[in-house]
Amino acid sequence: MGNVYHTLKERGFIAQVTDEAELEASLGRERVTCYIGFDPTASSLHAGSLLPLMALAHMQRAGHKTIAILGGGTAMVGDPSGKSEMRQMLTEEEIAENGRQMGKQFARFIRLDGQDGLMLNNAEWLLPLSYISFLRDYGKYFSVNRMLSFEAYKIRLEKGLSFLEFNYQLLQAYDFLVLFQKQGCALQMGGDDQWGNIVAGMDLIRRLESKPAYGLTFPLLQTASGEKMGKTAKGAVWLDGNRTLPYDFFQYLRNTDDRDVARFLCFFTFLPLAEIGELTAAGGAALNAAKERLAYEVTKIVHGDQAAEQARAAAKSAFGGAGQGDEGIPSTPLEPARLVDGILVVDLFAQTGLCSSKSEARRLITQGGAKVGERKIESIEDKVTPQDFKDGSVILRAGKKKVHRVLVQD
Fold first, then answer.
1. How high is the pLDDT of residue 129?
2. Which of the listed CATH numbers 1.10.150.450, 1.25.40.10, 3.10.290.10, 3.90.870.40 matches domain 331-408?
3. Closest CA to 50 of 195, 247, 251, 253
4. Higher confidence at residue 151 or residue 251?
5. To the nearest 10°, the Cα dihedral for 135, 136, 140, 141?
6. pLDDT digits (tens, 9 = 90+) for 294-338
């Protein structure tokens, strides 16, 4: 198998790297232990976490040891990087529960067998720390002037940086030191907004251990339209199937901007680059097949083969008229009594979440974008009646990309 550094570079994973020649050589000649940290500030990882997770997967596939760190300790402080304001403070119990939920998702990407992959929680070594002893032992190695020179801190200083958050870099640097000492971990990876924190950890290792360590960052993911990857009008696209249904996850990727398809196939799938080139060479309408492949491959990794097959079948049923696979479409049950006099389309579109409000549903109808089954809705006074249902269900459509299934309860 080739050098994983070449794989990461060819697929666009690398934004910045320290000692590039040395790291490239090290990854080519020996087994390297690397880590990425994930603070459990929510009960699930989101689509923006796919890039670091895939980087760990590539490292492990190439024979290196990978460590996924749950930031149970650092989440108590909150990373100011990439944030315009201070994060909401969570309780220790909330953080622990979030960590338990997030931990289940790591296993979709890497083996957590203790040999090739580990999941550790930095609360184990951070929470027992004595603050005064920690400052005396390690604070003396950090320059405030240098810390303030990093972009993450400079941006936050303009709007206000709390002293609590100012400590975050020390804690992340200490993480790297602990993992270096106890696990032989010599490489930390993360998003490009983590550059300052990663370099601080390398410097701490160099000062205390007199040995080399390395850092590598990934590009901060934005779509071609300038939006943050994994963000939608409804909020985050979660990797937890209970928070974002596999069908909705599939559709999010299926609706990728044409300009992002090749890049996302490189980032979020294991498809060979030559195959990606063939899928995306034609462009235009031919990219639809590449988008479907992207959605299928990523859904398979995140949710498993069965969920990916169901999501793909549901999408074909909803948009291709196949008539099969409807069970994968997001659904809402409806009591038969509500249909006796009919239910306003406006009310039903808002109830199912196809529209965020009745006002949005009215606009959709007046613009000609609402359908019940194959019936185009012409008036905001139109109702859904028993005649719209076939075999106890009907598909609602909002524009060309959003669908929802309504089921009459038995």
1. 94
2. 3.10.290.10
3. 253
4. 251
5. -80
6. 999 999 999 999 999 999 988 877 665 545 556 667 777 777 777
